[in-house]
C-alpha cells in the first residue's frame, strides 16, 4: 500500500478502512510516512471529516502505537480515574481535583500537557515547583500513586507516540480544530493510561478552542461515543470559558491559588462548582460514592478536612518537590518583580472579557510559548481577577498584573483594560456548568 493512495482516498471524500489507518499510524511511528504525507492526510481528514468508525479506528491504532499501561498487578488501592480539559484560561481544576479524588479513594495517573496556543498547560504550572520531576520512571510513578493516590506527569516517549508526532504536525499545519482528530488525540493518550473512568471538561466560549456551543457539543458527543466504544466509561461536561476561571491566570500564580483552594481559603464560586461537580462525577464512576449527594459531601469533606491538601503535598514530595510546599508556597514559587494594580476606568459592572486575548497577553508577558522550544517565565500573569457580574467603582482593581519589568507591566495594564468591558447596568454571568453528556447519542 502506498501512502499517496491512502491520502487520495480521503482527499476524494471516501472512507478509510482500518488497514489504511493502521498503515498511516505505523508510518507515523517508524518514519515511513514523511511529514508532508502525514500533513496532507491530516488536512484531508480535517476538510472531509471522519465517520465514527474511522475515528474509533484512528483512536485505537494510536493508543496501541506505544505502551498501554496495565495497573492490574500494581496493587493500587482504588479505581483508576482521570479528568481531562479541552483547555482554557486560568483552568487549574486538575491541580485541585486530582488530590481531592485521591483523598476520596480514587487513583489518578494524570498525563498532562504543556500550554497550547492561548491556553495554559498543567505541566507548565507544576514545572515552576523546584525539583518536581514530571517524567518519572515507572517505579517512581507507581510509588507516587501508592503514597499520594495521584500523579500529574508529562506524556512519555512510550505513550501514544503516533499522537505525539501527529500532534506536532497538526500544530504547525492548521489542522488542530477538528472534532475527530481532537477526539483521537485525547482519547489515545487516555486509553493508553489504562483508565477505568474519565470525565471530560469541554470548555465553551471565547477562551476555549470550541467557541460555539455547537462545536463543543459535537466534541463532547464524539469523545463520549468513541471512548464508550473503546470500553472506557466517559462523561463530558460542557463548562463556560467566557471568562478567566478563578482569580488567577499564569503558572506560579495558579499553583498558589490551587494550594489556597485546597486549604479552603480561596473557594471562588465558579471554580469551586466545576471542581466539586467533576470530582463528584469521578467518585460516582469509580463507585466511590452511593449517589450524587454523597459524592459531593465526600468532596467537601476532602477539602474541609485538609485531606486533599495532604495528598497534594505527598504527590509533590514523591515526585521530587519540597515536602513543605503547601506550608511555604511563596518561599518556593517564583514571584514577579513588578506587580501593578489595573484600575477600573469607570464605575459599573464587569460585563464581558476577551478571554482568549487575555491568555495571549500572558504569552506576551512570557508566561507561554511563541515557539515550541521557548522557555517560559512562570512568574507572570494576573491575580485578583474580577469576575463577570462584579460591581466596581472607578479606580477599584480589576486585576493585578505580575510582570518581569515595569515596561511589560505598563503594556499589560493598558492592554488588559481593552479586554474587559464595564457596563452601566447589572450583568448576570452565564452559568459555569452548561450541560452534561453521559451517554453517546449515536451508538
Ligand atoms: N489536546 C490534545 O491532546 N489533542 C488535541 O488534538 C487537542 C487538545
Please characterize this protein's 3D structure.
The radius of gyration is 22 Å and the shape is globular. It has helices at 3-11, 18-30, 35-48, 52-63, 93-103, 122-126, 138-148, 161-171, 179-192, 213-229, 251-262, 269-285, 292-304, 307-318, 329-332, 355-367, 406-419, and strands at 81-85, 108-112, 150-154, 197-204, 234-240, 338-343, 348-353, 381-383, 391-392, 397-403, 420-423, 433-437. The two termini are 31 Å apart. α4 runs parallel beside α9 (179-192) and α4 crosses α10. The protein folds into three domains: 3-49, Transferase, Pyrimidine Nucleoside Phosphorylase, Chain A, domain 3 (Up-down Bundle), CATH 1.20.970; 81-329, Nucleoside phosphorylase/phosphoribosyltransferase catalytic domain (Pyrimidine Nucleoside Phosphorylase, Chain A, domain 2, 3-Layer(aba) Sandwich), CATH 3.40.1030; 335-423, Alpha-Beta Complex (Aldehyde Oxidoreductase, domain 3). α10 links the parallel β4 (197-204) and β5 (234-240). Strands 1-4-5-12 form a four-stranded mixed sheet, with helices on both faces. A three-stranded antiparallel sheet has the order 6-10-8. The chain is an alpha/beta fold and 443 residues long. Uracil binds at residues 113, 167, 176, 181-182, 185-186.
